[in-house]
């Protein structure tokens, strides 16, 4: 078989590829072409490679390019089968006078023809050729060799066809195709643009798997694209804006890439642009903000100006989209702008090493306030039929981020929207199974270009908790929240989230947002306990909450690293116990005794006596476990001490229980072992409050305190109330 014969035989592949996109209405084509029928018979009856070559050549002459429908193409495949292409792909020796790759080229051409049939593209005999096809892309050769170029085109056609099948991307990734495509693109040889297009498709279909299999190679592509983006002066920079989000890794983005991306974005966004040019740049910036926070923005004046520009443009875009009557809302772009606004909110509240100067912060807050007003206006128009749409969720998220930091401005508008927010959060919470992927849909809308990319964590209720925590401290908003049933919803939510942290669940895999959400719920309940005690007494949901707090605290205080949550639970439970003291559940039941024992453990272990070299007396110091979190904990501790003090006269069994725990004795012993000057006045007051109430409530407590030198200690610390109480019979 001559080289010319092989070139002619490749026309079969050409015929198949041209027919793949437009199938002519030739359902009876084979019956109208008896010559093709005769040659197909010869192809089926061929006894060796020479006869098969000859018959294949005749078939190519009997059909014209584009004159093969799917049925005819399948009949040709049935006649050829995979055995012949398999030998072509694996044969090392070429016919005399032909290039080494000529047999492989014909084999690939046949595969390309067959792969235009989706069913054949998923055939195991095609899938097991993926490593061979991938290797072709990385094989060096004469760039001017037309036959080699045709083979590369056919290879990309095969790989693209496989990628279009349901499980194709997984097979390609396992077969080393991602690495081969990266090398082909970085080599900038023939077909490198096809390599990039196929890489984009694989990343869009299976981002995590691609990065797992070929992270070094993909990072090299990202470096190349970032450098091209930074240098681009033509329209290609706008095309790169659309490609680059796909190539950002799920882990750390290399510093040099961040530098190039920021520089390229600064040049684009600092210019006068049309919307089709600006929007991809805003989406790329949002993707970087979501993945890296503000780390990609350089410190100093230039970084602050760039951030201010980003947030400014985002706010303008949001207002144009949501305020203008009848305006078309590009939801993906506006969602990206929300991410940039959220970055602006974070930076405006940042204290350490801020990117923004105070005048810039003031200006941005004013600009963002107007954009948030537009978001509120939009949400006021949302009907029930739209409540499950990702864009509504994204709009609630940015409002929640704003309310977490600022509730004084737009107060009237926020109060008007509160009923909707409660109904919206309740609807999504109650239908969690149906809407569980809503935050991921938001991510897919603009922030993450792939289904498996990083998601925006949290459900709607969790997004609103920080803002509601602030609002429940204010009379007007609190009344609206209570009227709309928010406390009952929050109790249900707390109990459901608490289940995730209970024994039997692996808390190590829980996101931090779950525990933070529980703590924020506790803060809201604390606000309600203080400002709306009647609600706590009459609403049955708080009885259920109290029961959960009582049964949970004993194990919680024993768990390492969860002291802050334990402090919230203990303090909330103690405050609620004062209001629910007549409840049967608090009348010395095992659960109530276990809760108060755990609360005493939390309160009593906060401070220790610490000896100092050369000092005559030890000083009162924080216990090691409390030191790192005391700044967040101390207010809860003092409130807990005050609440425990209030519970003692209401629960007659509590003082004897405290005595059995030896807390009053150990407390006096601690105070007697340290220098009085090391104990701050507020600590003295807290300790005296507990000791006085225990002494007043129970004679045995008074006797135990006297035996522990209570009167002398009271005198040293000028605890007049305790000294007087202990001096009485």
From TrEMBL:
Stored InterPro entries: ARM-type_fold, Neurochondrin
An individual GO BP term: regulation of neuronal synaptic plasticity
GO cellular component: cytosol; dendrite; glutamatergic synapse; membrane; postsynapse
Pfam families in the record: Neurochondrin
Family of the protein in this entry: Belongs to the neurochondrin family.
Protein name per UniProt: Neurochondrin
The species this protein was found in: Vombatus ursinus (Common wombat)
């Amino acid at each position: 078989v001559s080289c010319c014969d092989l070139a002619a035989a490749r026309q079969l592949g050409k015929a198949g590829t041209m027919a793949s996109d437009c199938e002519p209405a030739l359902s009876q084509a084979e019956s109208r072409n008896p010559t093709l029928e005769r040659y197909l018979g010869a192809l089926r009856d061929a006894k060796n490679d020479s006869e098969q070559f000859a018959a294949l050549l005749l078939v190519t002459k009997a059909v014209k390019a584009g004159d093969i429908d799917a049925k005819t193409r399948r009949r040709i495949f049935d006649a050829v089968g995979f055995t012949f292409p398999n030998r072509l792909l694996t044969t090392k020796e070429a016919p005399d006078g032909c290039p080494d790759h000529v047999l492989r080229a014909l084999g690939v051409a046949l595969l390309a023809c067959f792969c235009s049939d989706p069913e054949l593209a998923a055939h195991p005999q095609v899938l097991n050729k993926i490593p061979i096809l991938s290797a072709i892309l990385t094989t060096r050769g004469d760039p001017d060799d037309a036959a080699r170029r045709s083979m590369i085109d056919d290879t990309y056609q095969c790989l693209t066809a496989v990628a279009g099948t349901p499980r194709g991307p997984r097979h390609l990734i396992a077969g080393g195709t991602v690495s081969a495509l990266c090398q082909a693109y970085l080599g900038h040889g023939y077909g490198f643009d096809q390599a990039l297009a196929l890489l984009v498709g694989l990343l869009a279909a299976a981002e995590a798997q691609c990065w797992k299999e070929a992270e070094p190679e993909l990072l090299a592509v990202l470096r190349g694209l970032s450098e091209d983006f930074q240098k681009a002066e033509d329209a290609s920079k706008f095309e790169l804006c659309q490609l680059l989000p796909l190539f950002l890794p799920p882990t750390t983005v290399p510093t040099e890439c961040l530098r190039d991306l920021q520089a390229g974005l600064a040049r684009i966004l600092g210019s006068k642009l049309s919307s089709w040019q600006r929007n991809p740049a805003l989406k790329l910036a949002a993707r970087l903000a979501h993945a890296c926070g503000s780390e990609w923005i350089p410190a100093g004046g230039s970084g602050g100006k760039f951030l201010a520009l980003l947030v400014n443009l985002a706010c303008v875009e949001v207002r144009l989209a949501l305020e203008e009557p009848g305006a078309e809302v590009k939801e993906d772009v506006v969602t990206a702008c929300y991410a940039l606004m959220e970055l602006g909110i974070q930076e405006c509240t940042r204290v350490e090493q801020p990117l923004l100067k105070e005048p810039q912060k003031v200006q941005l807050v004013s600009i963002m306030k107007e954009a948030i007003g537009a978001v509120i206006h939009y949400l006021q128009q949302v009907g029930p039929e739209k409540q499950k749409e990702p864009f509504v969720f994204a709009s609630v998220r940015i409002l929640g981020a704003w309310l977490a930091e600022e509730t004084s401005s737009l107060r009237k508008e926020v109060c008007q929207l509160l009923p909707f927010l409660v109904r919206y959060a309740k609807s999504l919470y109650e239908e969690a199974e149906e809407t569980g992927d809503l935050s991921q849909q938001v991510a897919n809308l603009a922030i993450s270009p792939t289904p498996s990319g990083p998601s925006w964590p949290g459900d709607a209720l969790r997004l609103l908790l920080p803002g509601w925590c602030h609002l429940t401290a204010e009379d007007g908003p609190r009344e609206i929240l209570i009227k709309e049933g928010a406390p009952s919803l929050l109790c249900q939510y707390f109990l459901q989230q608490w289940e995730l942290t209970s024994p039997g669940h692996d808390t190590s895999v829980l996101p931090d947002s779950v525990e933070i959400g529980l703590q924020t719920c506790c803060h809201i309940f604390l606000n309600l306990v203080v400002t709306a005690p009647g609600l706590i007494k009459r609403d049955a949901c708080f009885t259920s909450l109290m029961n959960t707090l009582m049964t949970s605290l004993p194990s919680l205080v024993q768990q390492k690293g969860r002291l802050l949550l334990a402090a919230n639970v203990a303090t909330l439970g103690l405050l609620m116990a004062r209001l629910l003291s007549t409840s049967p559940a608090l009348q010395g039941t095992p659960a109530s005794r276990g809760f108060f024992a755990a609360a005493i453990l939390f309160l009593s272990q906060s401070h220790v006596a610490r000896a100092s070299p050369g000092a005559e007396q030890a000083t009162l110091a924080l216990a090691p476990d409390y030191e790192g979190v005391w700044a967040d904990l101390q207010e809860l501790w003092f409130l807990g001490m005050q609440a425990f003090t209030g519970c003692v006269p209401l629960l007659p069994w509590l003082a004897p229980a405290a005595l059995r725990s030896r807390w009053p004795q150990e407390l006096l012993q601690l105070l007697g072992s340290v220098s009085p000057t090391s104990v701050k006045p507020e600590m003295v007051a807290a300790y005296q409050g507990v000791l006085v109430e225990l002494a007043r409530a129970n004679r045995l407590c008074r006797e135990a305190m006297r035996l522990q030198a209570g009167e002398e200690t009271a005198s040293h610390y000028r605890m007049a109330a305790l000294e007087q109480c202990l001096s009485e019979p």
